[in-house]
Structure formats: structure tokens, C-alpha cells
Amino acid sequence: MVEWMQNLMNELGYLGIFLLMILENLFPPIPSELIMPSAGFAAARGDLHLLGVVAAGALGSVIGTLPLYFIGRAYGEKRLIEWADKHGKWLTLSGKDIKRADDWFDRYGSGVVLFGRLVPGIRSLLSLPAGMSEMPLPKFMLFSALGSALWAALLAYAGYVLGDNYEEVEHLISPISKVVLGLVALWAAYVFIGRKRKQSAE
């Protein structure tokens, strides 16, 4: 898979990065943790420009979120979970994955669309509960764009710095994801306490 991704980027440049990041959102087995660092390495070699790499990756990621968002909006959680349990194996997607993403969304609110883009394993699926919850499209697009741009910049720069060791980025992401999870949990606790205080005051 890595060789195929590299060949596509070598042949199509920024367009290849854009297309791969769209696919990464639709087919989770294609990891952005390899796409963007590889593109960053190409920028380090002088084949591409780092800002162009980040822009192409972020734009592709945002466009890639839309199909799942509209699917989530058109169908309910129950129907999607049933479909994933029957037919989701070829996407390495299960009903449990959808339920977990929906629980995340319910627990942390719409802000999880922004912060969740920095968490592998969750980031690609967040569009479904956002659509199921009928999150306003402009707000969804804004949060997705900010989170995707930050994620793309982080990965591309890591690949730029690591050079031909860019594949090591995948191992470095885990600690960063844990930090993000911790921050999201603190933010959720703050929101929860604020709501409780407001309810008490009322």
C-alpha cells in the first residue's frame, strides 16, 4: 500500500495527496499517518512545497468527510449499525465502531469534530454521528477544516523533519493522541460541570 500511495503522489503531485486524503476518510485502512508524512518527505526532497502539501491534504480530508456526514444525516444510527455489522468488514468497519464514534459525539458535543480529527481510529468516523445529530453543515465544515488542517500540518511537518524515516511518524502519533484525548476529557468535564451549575441555578 505504501508503494502505491507514493507512486500516486509522484505521478499526480498535490492532486494525488488530495485524492488519497479523500479516500482515507472513506476507507479507514488507508492511513493519513503514512500519506501526509510521505508527502512531507517529498517536500523535504524539493519535489513539492510544504504549504502546498498541507493545503492539499487538509482540503482532501474536508471533502472526504462529506459523504459520511450526509449518509449519517440520511440514515439513523440503528440502520447504520446494522449495515456495518453485515457489510462493513471490507471497510474494517463494525457497528461497534459507529456506536463508539456516536458515544464520543454525544459525550463531548460538536467540538469533538475539531479535536477528534487528531485521534486516529476515531477521526474518520466522526462524520457519521455529526450527520446523525444533524449538526449544521457550515459549523461541521468549519470544525472539520480547522482540525484537518492542524492534523495535516503536524504529519507533513513530521515527515519533512524525519526525512526518509517518515514511516516512524505512525509510532510517534500515539502519545500525541493520548494528550489530545486527555484535553478533550478535561474540556468535556468543564462543559458537564457548567451545565450542572446552570441547571441548579434554574
From TrEMBL:
Matching InterPro entries: DedA_domain, VTT_dom
Membrane association type: Multi-pass membrane protein
Domain of life the protein comes from: Bacteria
Subcellular location: Cell membrane
Record keywords: Cell membrane, Membrane, Transmembrane, Transmembrane helix
Transmembrane feature ranges: 12-30, 50-71, 140-160, 172-193
Domain VTT: 30-160
Protein name (Swiss-Prot/TrEMBL): VTT domain-containing protein
